[in-house]
Amino acid sequence: MTDALPPGSTIGIVGGGQLGRMSAMAAARLGYRAHIFATEASSPASQVSAATTVGAYDDVDALARFARDVDVVTFEFENISAAGLELLAGIKPVRPGPAVLRASQDRVTEKCFINAVGGSTASWAAVNNPDDLASAVAEIGLPSVLKTTRLGYDGRGQAVLRERGDAEAAWERLAPRPLVLEAFVDFACEISVVVARGLDGSVAAFDAVENWHRHHILDLTLAPARISAELAENARATAIRVAAGLGVVGLLAVEMFVDRDGKLLVNELAPRPHNSGHWTIDACPASQFEMHIRAVAGLPLPPATRHSDAVMKNLVGPDDLALWPEILATPGLIPHLYGKAEARPGRKMGHVTRLFPRGALPGEHGVRAVLGVLADGESK
Ligand code: AMP
């Protein structure tokens, strides 16, 4: 392991949110310092890190200062500009590399890549103007989903087209353009796999998990997904193939639909720790965050084994946060809070995990009941 960063080295993390925070905590446990690049000095990640460089994500002077101060650069936030990426990569090793980030920043590039490595996606067509949209609707049919190719997250920047007449208003509303039209998938469930890939090309893929959303935001993750062993293995194999094809060093989260025929369709890639991997902190000997740091630091990757089954629930906005005292008083709920000053609606403030012996994950209707004070609500 000649390329391994020695203890005491500094890992630069671009982005100051909860993913950076939990990566920095994993880095600290492995004897590294974390240095955050964020737009505010007291970001959630900064609060647990040795240093922060404050700057905008396109501030080349600040990015250069940051890169000079660290030993390796990684990300918790993938929407940094192409110029910013090139600049960082010219100063220090950037893991995953700029090509991986560029592929995941644009839905069309991403889908081309997934299809090229043999991954299936819902049928799709690039939409650069209203004429493209008309022909895409004719080709793909309705219902379908129109999405911005860049900067969409948590269901922002997309519209479901149910009738031909919906197309014009959706075109007008969605920005930034260009757009992409996808067939609407009548899915049986949504799953994801987080895979780590090391500097030496070794891989460790966590089990496929099942994701339930609420108001377009991840609400619950069930680990493992309640799908057949064969499908779960296919999902892991798909994630590994995509990560290897992209040459990822670090983490890749692969979000997939399982359609009504039991077919896997890749929806989205994220080359970073992922919300659907938070359960690994409590249910696995090495979490997604430890895998992230190990991969970017050139350390060996342990197997991505799971000692327990788990349900993870996000704490979103002021309503969930208001339950914090009760959460702390509920035996079995493992609490995580991200240190965000303001609990705006829709903002991810923390999460809780509940563990079960392997094989004892509650069924569909029991999942909410095990969350105690957080049992209210509907998601899917
Ligand atoms: P995305 O931003 O692509 O992750 O989409 C956010 C959510 O919208 C997904 O988790 C799905 O619940 C839903 N969604 C996105 N694309 C489709 C699709 N093609 N068919 C059905 N539902 C979709």
What does this structure look like?
The chain is an alpha+beta fold and 380 residues long. It has three domains: 85 residues, Rossmann fold (3-Layer(aba) Sandwich); 61 residues, Dna Ligase, domain 1, CATH 3.30.1490; 188 residues, 2-Layer Sandwich (D-amino Acid Aminotransferase, Chain A, domain 1), CATH 3.30.470.20. The chain has twelve helices and 17 strands. The strands form three sheets. Strands 9, 10, 11, 12, 13, 14, 15, 16 and 17 form a nine-stranded antiparallel β-sheet that branches. Strand 9 and strand 10 form a beta hairpin. Helix 4 packs across helix 5. The longest helix has 18 residues. The radius of gyration is 20 Å and the shape is globular. It starts with 9 loop residues before the first strand and ends in a 23-residue tail after the last strand. The site of adenosine monophosphate has 13 residues, from strand 14.
List keywords for this structure.
single chain; about 375 residues; alpha+beta; Rossmann fold; Dna Ligase, domain 1; D-amino Acid Aminotransferase, Chain A, domain 1; nine-stranded antiparallel sheet; four-stranded parallel sheet; 17 strands; about 30% helix; about 25% strand; globular; binds adenosine monophosphate
